[in-house]
Automatic annotation (TrEMBL), chains A, B:
An annotated GO BP: negative regulation of DNA-templated transcription
Family: Belongs to the HrcA family.
Keyword annotations of the record: Repressor, Stress response, Transcription, Transcription regulation
InterPro entries listed in its UniProt record: DeoR_HTH (IPR001034), GAF-like_dom_sf (IPR029016), HrcA (IPR002571), HrcA_C (IPR021153), WH-like_DNA-bd_sf (IPR036388), WH_DNA-bd_sf (IPR036390), WHTH_transcript_rep_HrcA_IDD (IPR023120)
Natural source organism: Geodermatophilus siccatus
One protein family per Pfam: HrcA
Gene coding for it: hrcA
Domain Heat-inducible transcription repressor HrcA C-terminal intervals: 105-321
Its job: Negative regulator of class I heat shock genes (grpE-dnaK-dnaJ and groELS operons). Prevents heat-shock induction of these operons.
Name of the featured protein: Heat-inducible transcription repressor HrcA
Transcription regulation among keywords: yes
Length: 340, 340
DNA sequence: ATCTGGCACTCTGTCCGTGCGAGTGCCAGC
DNA sequence: GCTGGCACTCGCACGGACAGAGTGCCAGAT
């Protein structure tokens, strides 16, 4: 089976060369640049087989070969190992993320960092509300009959909603309400907390009944609404660099990135085991991303998954390096978030 | 001076035609499409003068004329009137912005709306902290010796900072501190509030002294730090549509938009009188934007300026329509913010 | 059974020359 | 001061020729 083995070497060499040069790679160049120990003619035979099996293709007769999605898939699964980051890069990660003042700051630094390390578009999902717990609930009176409800999660997310009350509100009641809410909800998972609201309506002291009733609906909505899970996107300028890899236009891709929901779904479907997930080209099952690859991983503190992050780029990308960068950044972000 | 008058009509016609067709416009086409009442030959003479004066230029001999930055400037200043929005558009604005749940939601809807109306890249600045006032200050104990300080402004912005205290913190003291902080700062402009911090150190009750000292520095920093004034960007996909207007690459422009600080400076320098500001091409004084125009205006509630918003696009854009859209959106946003 | 060198073939990208069309500048005449 | 006419200049699209790269296949070597 030294036969099959060599064919895989050829595929690996094709992927590596094509990724670095962006030129279809021919048998002669392959024989020169890699020590495969055989002549171009032999490589040609191997290439013919690889093409028949669907791993490579030629853009037109008499150009070299180019990996197909299937070829990249095999490369990622069996022919490559994550390329460890350099010491300088690791140091850069720490320096970059240190000194962030709040959640938004952490995430926007993360996305810039990831974009810079991989030279691709980076995306980071806000910690999902559904997996967060209540750190604090704040009630602020902004007008006589209007309250501002502020939810702070243990992951640092802040959600706020205005509530109109049917009647004027007493200052002391607001303070009491605040205490009551925090006694009831602090520390609870958001999903569990929503279930406590009906109870609260029953057990609240008489003077707070109307207030609780007024904010109840909004509170539940705030706690369970996972619809607005947000995304931070950065490094779109890198797309211009790789525009050649997207025949036609960058537009569908830029639109998908702005749409958020498409990318969000991809990024949030992370392996719970913490493995880096790669989706290549057509595997993405969304037209705008059919020429792109997505490398993603979950991040979290300890064993708690908070959200996903990753990169979006052309299928012709340096998978080993980018996968390593994505994983490393996710780990550091997890650490940082655990400290805050 | 019917002479000069007609020349300006010619310039206006050139701008309009060029904006809509993206083809250099020649004397013959001009005479056909516009009722200038003179022959192509006469128009040619006018064009020669306009070119000499620097308002138009020809890409190469024997192509039509194209407006220069100076030409667009004259057009914007003297040859055009803001084109009122259609009823449908006005309704779309209301529908789009209604139902926003918090500040971030309002601004991200705004940016999407503006991008959609103008088909350009839209940018919206968060309400500047320096012009905001304290609505509420919240102190949350997240660990025995660690506090979370949350600042909520009257514009709905939320800033949070973690504070490490040198000693363990008593729960009751936290409540007392919260009351003290709000009594002291609520309603004060952020800039003024910072000045009150030293006073607070003097007058705080003995049991709170150390706490106040611990949070003092962070508090001042949070109040005065205008560095992180944030920007929401949307509609970058529209750049792909007008890529032809940016010879070379979209990259510098995308980079500038990500850099934020460059665009932020442009957007935040708004006319206090509420006039729409247009910067054309080289007027931007930043290389990446030298081929782009920025249309911006301040938004605010009542007579209070909160921040700026606007669009970035090629110099070849429909100024009358876009200026009207920017102004209309700014007004609506001001209204919405005034209500919350 | 497998590899290798040689050779004919195919296709693309490029260069060059040509012709066409658009647009101009200028000038004489109204 | 406007107009029609005319010669001139370019850019661009089209088409043919050509070089280069790469392949597939086959006969011979190992």
């Amino acid at each position: 089976m030294a036969h099959d083995e060599r064919r895989l070497q050829v595929l690996r060499a094709i992927v590596q060369d094509y990724v670095s040069t962006n030129d279809p790679v021919g048998s002669k160049a392959l024989a020169e640049r890699h020590d495969l120990g055989v002549s171009p003619a032999t490589i040609r035979n191997d290439m013919a087989v690889l093409e028949e099996q669907g791993y490579i293709t030629q853009p037109h007769t008499s150009a070299g070969r180019v990996p197909t999605d299937k070829g990249y898939r095999l490369f990622v699964d069996r022919l490559s190992a994550l390329k460890p980051l350099s010491v300088a890069e690791k140091r850069a990660i720490e320096r970059f993320l240190d000194g962030a003042v709040d959640l938004h700051d952490i995430l926007s630094r993360t996305v810039r960092l990831l974009a810079q390390l991989t030279h691709q578009v980076a995306v980071v999902q806000y910690p999902t509300l559904s997996r967060s717990a209540v750190r604090h609930l704040e009630v602020v009176q902004v007008a006589t009959a209007r309250l501002l409800l502020v939810l702070i999660t243990d992951t640092g997310r802040v959600e706020q909603r205005l509530v109109d009350c049917p009647v004027d509100v007493d200052r002391d009641d607001v303070a009491e309400l605040r205490t009551l809410l925090n006694q009831t909800f602090a520390g609870a998972k958001l999903a569990d907390a929503a279930a406590l609201v009906p109870d609260l309506l029953e057990t609240a002291p008489p003077n707070l009944r109307r207030l609780v009733a007024a904010i109840g609906a909004v509170l539940v909505e705030t706690l369970v609404e996972p619809g607005d899970d947000r995304l931070v996107v950065g490094g779109t300028a890198n797309l211009a660099r790789v525009a050649v890899d997207f025949p036609g236009s960058l537009r569908p891709l830029l639109e998908a990135l702005e749409e958020q929901v498409v990318v969000l779904r991809l990024i949030s479907e992370v392996d719970t085991g913490g493995a880096v997930l790669v989706r290549i080209g057509e595997e993405n099952a969304h037209e705008a991303l059919s020429g792109a690859s997505v490398v993603s991983v979950g991040y979290g503190s300890g064993d708690r998954a908070l959200g996903g992050l990753g990169i979006v780029g052309p299928t012709r990308m340096d998978y080993p390096t980018n996968m390593a960068a994505v994983r490393a950044v996710a780990r550091y972000v997890g650490q940082i978030l655990a400290e805050s």
